[in-house]
């Protein structure tokens, strides 16, 4: 294949948070950079919860990773302050803290062992709280919660806003954002010398691979890195009450976004690239995710085929459209009005409303 030199000396394959952050930092040290981004609808950053919680994520046998994550968390506010100043976009970073709780005897034992690992081996700033003190922090936690690990330094960020801010900051520094799929790597003498985009070869002195779970599709050399896709589903709930921090049980976490919605996540499924939401996934998230909480009576699900309830949005339609257009990083300048209004009209028809949002409401008898 004929190769032409790229306009820059670095090509970054993949414009998720990792590729973009690397590209932005390279621009800071005077390199010229092109980011090639395939716009995968299933990219991890689109659904990621954005928890920054090294103690909760820490696993046995991953000491270096754990310490690196803690050091990264300490540097994160400065990184984001610089990014927000350059891009003018707020990333909704908040140091909310996290609480990992135990709901039965087995979980209590496991949590105690994890606490000892974090405090004694990793020397992390974590506190062991009895159930009563967990409920002081999160009053709606169930009496079943017998203890918890509190990590006050843990934080959260909005991954979609983070990606949006990085894209703007890169463009402002003269980086090139190229919307295309890299189909493979170009090699010469055992070295990567460029990338293949359709029928074209683009040569560059440095190629950064940051295609997330799609790394294996770039050829045998990239596949040797053994990065594989793992499916994860999350639920986004409307609730006025809980929680104020990230709360985690053995399998599921819950946290509130600044927008007010509560996220329950995430399933971990060895399903490869199987897209879509599954009944089993939703059931697992509801079953596990609501256990630490009391006074949760209903869940409103948006999206399932069977709808039981509608909310008339006719009077607030204009504000709704204006609010949607504020999501610049996701919608940009696309004309979505016709599509969204048609959907709301279709949804309202069955309920005799001009425009509506429809839900499946699941009620719990406790
Ligand atoms: C449900 C879920 C919840 C998560 N929650 C958290 C959390 O709370 N905290 C946390 O720290 N992490 C979380 N993660 C993990 C986090 O999302 C990932 O670690 C992070 O997004 C990885 O960034 P990335 O840039 O490497 O990959 P991605 O975010 O997947 O981005 C890769 C990019 O590469 C592009 N691409 C792919 N193939 C090509 C190609 N051939 N050519 C060009 N571009 C290509 C894609 O379009 C995509 O934009 C979660 C993940 C999931 C799935």
SSE order and pairing:
Layout: E1 3-5, E2 10-13, H1 17-28, E3 33-37, H2 44-47, E4 51-52, H3 54-57, H4 63-87, E5 98-102, H5 105-121, E6 127-130, H6 131-137, E7 147-151, E8 155-156, H7 159-172, E9 176-179, E10 184-188, E11 191-197, E12 200-203, E13 206-209, H8 220-223, E14 235-237, E15 246-248, E16 253-256, E17 262-265, H9 279-289, E18 298-301, E19 309-312, H10 317-325, H11 328-331, H12 337-349, E20 356-363
Parallel strand pairs: 1-12, 2-3, 2-13, 3-9, 5-15
Antiparallel strand pairs: 4-8, 5-7, 6-7, 10-11, 11-12, 14-17, 15-16, 16-17, 18-20, 19-20
The structure holds flavin-adenine dinucleotide.
Flavin-adenine dinucleotide binds at residues 13-19, 36-40, 43-45, 47-51, 181-182, 210-214, 217, 232, 234, 265-266.
Which class do the helix and strand fractions yield?
Answer: alpha/beta
Shape estimate = globular
Strands, total number: 20
CATH architecture of the domain at 3-48 and 159-223: 3-Layer(bba) Sandwich
Mean pLDDT value: 89
Please state roughly what percent of the residues sit in beta strands, choosing from under 5%, 5-15%, 15-25%, 25-35%, 35-45% or over 45%: 15-25%
Side by side, the strands of the main sheet go: 6-7-5-15-16-17-14
CATH topology of the domain at 3-48 and 159-223: FAD/NAD(P)-binding domain
Helix content: 25-40%
CATH class of the domain at 3-48 and 159-223: Alpha Beta
Bound molecules: flavin-adenine dinucleotide
- Low-confidence segments, given as residue ranges, are none
Distance between the termini: 66 Å
What is the name of the CATH superfamily of the domain at 3-48 and 159-223? FAD/NAD(P)-binding domain
- Multimerization status: single chain
């Amino acid at each position: 294949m004929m190769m032409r030199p790229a306009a820059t000396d670095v090509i970054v394959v993949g414009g998720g948070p990792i590729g973009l952050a690397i590209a932005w930092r390279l621009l800071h040290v005077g390199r010229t950079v092109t980011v090639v981004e395939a716009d995968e609808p299933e990219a991890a950053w689109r659904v990621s919860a954005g928890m920054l919680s090294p103690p909760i994520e820490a696993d046995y046998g991953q000491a270096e990773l754990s310490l690196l994550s803690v050091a990264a968390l300490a540097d994160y506010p400065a990184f984001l302050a610089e990014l927000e100043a350059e891009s003018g976009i707020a990333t909704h970073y908040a140091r909310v803290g996290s609480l990992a709780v135990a709901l039965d005897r087995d979980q209590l034992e496991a949590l105690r062992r994890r606490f000892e690992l974090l405090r004694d081996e990793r020397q992390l700033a974590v506190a062991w709280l009895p159930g009563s003190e967990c409920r002081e922090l999160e009053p709606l936690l169930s009496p079943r919660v017998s203890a918890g690990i509190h990590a006050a330094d843990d934080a959260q960020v909005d991954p979609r806003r983070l990606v949006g801010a990085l894209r703007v900051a890169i463009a402002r520094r003269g980086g090139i954002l190229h919307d295309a799929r890299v189909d493979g790597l170009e090699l010469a003498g055992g070295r990567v010398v460029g990338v293949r985009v359709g029928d074209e070869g683009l040569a560059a002195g440095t190629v950064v691979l940051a295609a997330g779970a799609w790394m294996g599709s770039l050829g045998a050399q990239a596949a040797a890195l053994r990065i594989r896709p793992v499916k994860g589903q999350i639920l986004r709930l409307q609730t006025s009450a809980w929680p104020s921090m990230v709360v985690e049980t053995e399998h599921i976490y819950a946290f509130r976004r600044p927008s007010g919605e509560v996220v329950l996540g995430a399933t971990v499924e060895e399903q490869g690239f199987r897209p879509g939401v599954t009944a089993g996934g939703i059931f697992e998230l509801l079953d596990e995710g609501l256990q630490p909480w009391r006074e949760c009576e209903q869940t409103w699900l948006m999206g399932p085929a069977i709808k039981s309830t509608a909310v008339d949005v006719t009077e607030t339609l204009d504000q709704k459209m204006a609010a949607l257009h504020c999501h610049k990083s996701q919608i940009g300048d696309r004309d979505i009005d016709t599509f969204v209004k048609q959907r709301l009209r279709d949804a309202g028809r069955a309920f005799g409303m001009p425009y509506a949002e429809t839900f499946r409401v699941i009620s719990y008898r406790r």
